[in-house]
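Proteins fold reproducibly. Look at a concrete instance:
___
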Amino acid sequence: MTDDLRFDRDKDRPSLMHLVADGVVQATVDLDDPSYLDAEYMQRISYLVDAMTEPKRPVRALHLGAGALAMARYVAATRPGSYQQAVETNEALVALVRAEAPLPRGVKVKIRHTDAREAVEAAPEDSYELIITDVYAEARVPAHVTSVEFLRLAHRVLRPGGHYAVNLCDGGQMRFLKPALAAMSAVWPHVAIMSEPAVLRGRRFGNVVAVASDAELPVAALRRRCAGAPFPCRVLEGAELKDYIAGATPATDETAIQSPPPPKSLRSF
């Protein structure tokens, strides 16, 4: 995040608040409806949240990258009573959210001001059922949250059968994405991704949501939701995902790179 940070109220829907940094919309929250998710990648993460356990059951969730707390609001709205912790390095952002887009009454999210990696290093073993990583620095995913070493730390923090979700982005030759996915596959036996075909083929820059677990993923439910979305997307897992990664070497602390910057033409990502 940068110093150019603000909330813009939507002209057509006043309850919508758009978090803007350097002229780019980073997140949108609805003050009247915490279950509303504007960003397509967040909607895809919500498909996992909805399918990972029986409906409305509270979960223990760790959010690496707090943003406007859109996903934390969604978890609280759909799974009341959930214990949630969010990690955010930008204290000014957290203060802005609390002042202009506060959490609904009764929703509690513990916020820690620290780096995502430091947070998982310090967290107790088997302490969360869900980890959502949505970490960006100047519109790019930092290298240190995609390596095998980082993911092993996240795996240690997850409870048996817990789920990991991450928002990644890439385009072109996928030099960032494929090693990051290979690293996930080196840590978890079950990995799936959700994204538009044009993005997966490298024809345009965009988001790829990757999910992982030691347990079988709810792939059928994810496919149904992705197929019925306003902007349908594909789900790759198993042999299809292995073929897509095509032998990419898993990203490590020594080899991981940050994601490429989004094209200037993109208003949000």
